[in-house]
Amino acid sequence: MEIHFLNVGCGNMTLWLFPNGTTWICDCNITDENEEAVMRYLRKAMGNRQKIDAFICSHRDADHMRGIKKLHKAFPLGGIWDNGVEGTTTDSPEYREYMDLRRQLKHGEITAGSSNSVGEVGGSWLHSKDDDYSDANDQSIVAKIDYRGSSALLAGDTSYAPWKDKLVRRLGANLKSSILLASHHGSITFFDDPSDTQHYYTAHMQAISPDMTLISVGPNVHGLPDKKAVELYAKYSSGSNQGNKVFTTEEKGNMKLVLEGGGAWTLSVGQ
């Protein structure tokens, strides 16, 4: 099972290549500046695959759906699935373009606690729309992909809140994953619980206990990734065979993860 983490700046885009030939993409951030490089990489990574069976939007923010019509033109999308939450950028051209295409294609909503199996690969949707949270980011889809005991967890743009309130309590050790895609481009909100001014929230990282954490980020005005967040991700990531704990797309470029089964995986950078 291959998962490609694309270097798309301060946004997110992952390509999921299932062993049976099924192709999914989660999120999209294609800009005028990176379009040529992103399309070139997709053509190389997808090989003979000509279409994308499903597009998953973790949440409807511009940096997770930008350029979706460009993507659809190059690789026709079989359908669009998201969390059903409006998001925080409803007045943006990216939002209007996304919703227009969503209406044209087969579409639906992913609910927390549901799952999909694609051949030998299990996909679990750990979190999604939840009216307990007013922040659209905290209703991001959180996904876990498992192939024969090797897994990756994608945290969307969630803060500490849904993890503390629900996910850790409900799932516990089932959160354990080989690789973690960090939340919100390395924002400290994943750890910073305002109710505890002395400590950062880390029970979720202890439960996930990843070998490595990957951060999808590029140049931005928000100071991401946050230095303290990177420090905490490193502290609670056990490290690869080479001792690597945290990689960013800004530093390493496109990254290709191969889940091999039995907890084994390989990560190639600068692809």
What does this structure look like?
This protein is an alpha/beta fold and 271 residues long. The chain has helices at 35-46, 68-74, 93-104, 161-171, 203-208, 227-235, 249-252; strands at residues 2-5, 14-17, 23-26, 28-29, 54-56, 65-66, 80-82, 107-109, 115-118, 121-127, 142-147, 150-154, 179-181, 212-215, 246-248, 255-261, 264-269. It has one domain (2-269): Ribonuclease Z/Hydroxyacylglutathione hydrolase-like (Metallo-beta-lactamase, Chain A, 4-Layer Sandwich), CATH 3.60.15. Helix content is 23%, strand content 26%. β14, α6 (227-235) and β15 form a beta-alpha-beta unit. It starts with a strand and ends with a strand.
The CATH H-level superfamily is Ribonuclease Z/Hydroxyacylglutathione hydrolase-like
Tell me the count of domains.
1
Number of strands: 17
Q: What composes the largest sheet?
A: 8 strands, mixed
Count of helical regions: 7
Overall CATH architecture: 4-Layer Sandwich
